[in-house]
Specification:
Layout lengths: L1 E4 L25 E4 L2 E3 L39 H12 L3 H15 E3 L2 H5 L8 H11 L2 E3 L1 H14 L4 E6 L2 E7 L10 E3 L2 E7 L19 E6 L15 E2 L14 H5 L14
Parallel strand pairs: 4-5
Antiparallel strand pairs: 1-8, 1-10, 2-3, 2-11, 6-7, 6-10, 7-9, 8-9
């Protein structure tokens, strides 16, 4: 994990309560339920961020690893990564390309809580699931980690370095774009300047706009790589499906980010090896 220089913050992670029984459809295949949680065919828990199988692998107050991004990178690269490649072909200018990708995610996703969308306290979507829905329906729905994961993968596909950043009650994307003139705050990751905050959850946000409440503080961030998760074997579990219910799209804090309500105050965060 890496250091994002920009709020003295604390993260305290508390395991989420078990979700009720459900019947779900109209999303990715090969989900299964175990002990009240939903897992995919990489055995990643989509309804919990913590632990070795959580979708962000939050291990402690100083360690997280956004494993869900690696379902769409490396050998797993698919629709989201390919979307980034299309932008790379269409927009040779780095700043223009980065901005076009940001606007795509901002305008093609509508913010909705997981409770309203799935009837679950938490359900993280991977980048290809969101990209597929956009491709098929013209618009997708998600909360802040869904925006962040899609942007991180698309930026990788378009040839940029990208990272996932965690803040109290929030997640966002960082893109490495030295010299970008429109950012309201210059950011450094492990002392390396040139990182730009990508806050796509607001309908009018420009690339580089960082909310004031996150300025002047230390936030945790993890630069994603092209590593890929490997499916060792199909899980020997009874499959379940996940349904998008729709509903009120007004902003409501996801319980996951309500749980991560305190960020830890430490001088340095190191990337997990």
């Amino acid at each position: 994990m890496r250091l994002l220089q920009s709020i003295p913050i604390y993260i305290m992670v508390i395991l989420m309560t078990l979700i009720p029984a459900f019947t779900l459809a109209d999303s990715s295949e090969n989900f299964y339920e175990e002990d009240g949680e939903i897992f995919d065919d990489w055995d990643v828990c989509r309804t919990r961020c913590t632990g070795n199988d959580g979708f962000l692998q939050v291990f402690s107050q100083t360690e997280f690893h956004p494993v869900i991004t690696f379902e769409s990178l490396g050998e797993n690269a698919d629709r989201a990564y390919q979307l980034g490649q299309v932008f790379a072909q269409d927009y040779p200018d780095l700043s223009q390309r980065a901005n076009k990708i940001f606007i795509f995610a901002r305008d093609k996703i509508r913010y909705i809580s997981d409770g309203d969308q799935f009837g679950l306290e938490e359900f993280a979507q991977n980048a290809d699931e969101v990209a597929t829905i956009i491709e098929q329906q013209g618009v997708a729905y998600g909360d802040c980690e869904d925006y962040a994961v899609l942007l991180a993968v698309m930026y990788k596909g378009a040839g940029y370095r990208s990272a996932i950043a965690l803040a109290p009650n929030h997640a966002a994307t960082l893109v490495y774009l030295p010299g970008y003139k429109r950012a309201n705050r210059s950011l450094s990751l492990d002392g390396e300047s040139g990182w730009v905050w990508a806050e796509a959850t607001g309908g009018n946000n420009p690339l580089g706009w960082m909310p004031e409440r996150y300025m002047g503080v230390r936030l945790t961030a993890f630069e994603v790589t092209d590593e890929a998760l490997t499916i060792l074997q199909p899980p020997a579990k009874s499959p379940t499906t996940v349904t998008q219910k729709g509903g009120n799209t007004g902003i409501r804090i996801s319980p996951f980010f309500g749980v991560i309500a305190f960020m830890f105050l430490v001088p340095l965060f190191r990337r997990r090896r």
